[in-house]
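**Sequence, structure tokens**
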Amino acid sequence: MSTVEELGYSNLDYDEIVFPRLGIDVHVNPTAFTIFGVSIQWYGIIIVSGLLLALLFAFRNMKRIGIDPDRATDAIIGGILGALVGARAYYVLLNWDDYKGDWKAIINTREGGLAIFGGLIGAVIVGGIVCHFRKVKLLPMLDICGVGFLIGQGIGRWGNFTNQEAFGKNTDSLFCMSGGRVQRWIALNYNANFSYDKDVTLDASYPVHPCFLYESAWCLLGAVLLFIAFKKFRKFDGQIILMYMVWYGFGRFFIEGLRTDSLMIGNLRISQALALFICIVALILLIVLFSKVKRMGSDYVLYVDTEESKQLLAEAEERNQKPEKTKKFPEKSEDSTEENNETDTNSENH
């Protein structure tokens, strides 16, 4: 395995990121800009960009699953809030020794510290509760969220790139990377006492796996495939969210095994174990439900084809139709015109 220096890159600056075998060398300051003394991080901008694209997809396709976008808006807002709280709570709780007693650090997410699994859990719980009260069918809603999740995650992972985090073990592969922050983190933090895998030696002078890149590519590929399935092959409500769980869980299980900063309980990588569990459970449910729907034949009806959905969409369409613009002054009738002319003539005679 070649060192970063042997590959032509030495003495990396703090904000320098290199992919030595691809010949890529860039400088990325995690702070995008400062306004009124507040530093705006690229991490946050990228996360928000992924979220907005996911929302754009969701609202453009909401009627395809038979849901009134107006009713769904409240559920989406609730899901976003739940995702933010859940993602931070999950991360903080599994790193409690680093945060206890420092409430400002707990709510400071500008430099990272959001766990995807926590965000997913929070989004489903809070969004599901709002769906219940707004009378939005949960399974169709989750189907559209499945594709949206992959869009948001695929883009959001590049926030880890700007922070030089979510990397893996040493490697000499085509996509190997290194960076000034990566090297300093390894030098300061990774040692025999810190490592949970005693068989792994992590050396700052060698490049590492860009796990953020692997996961981003996996999620974006999944978003394309699930979108095709969403449009052409959706046989039952809940199918797409289960396919999302299988796809993401399968990829995350292997990618998490490469990482050096996994959230741990003892010697167990929490996210890796959770990814495997989600993948297996979702796969079983997919098989069972496909068989059930096949047996039901024409007796099974997607929510979008139900009378309830059609009525709600019709009501939404009627509600959103713009009323015809009424003219400020009514048109004059021929009779009123003649009367006005007679009045003018009489006035002249007087």
Notes: The CA atoms of residues 64 and 304 lie 7 Å apart. Confidence is low (pLDDT under 50) at residues 345-350. The beta strands are 16-19, 24-27, 31-35, 38-41, 178-179, 264-265, 268-269.
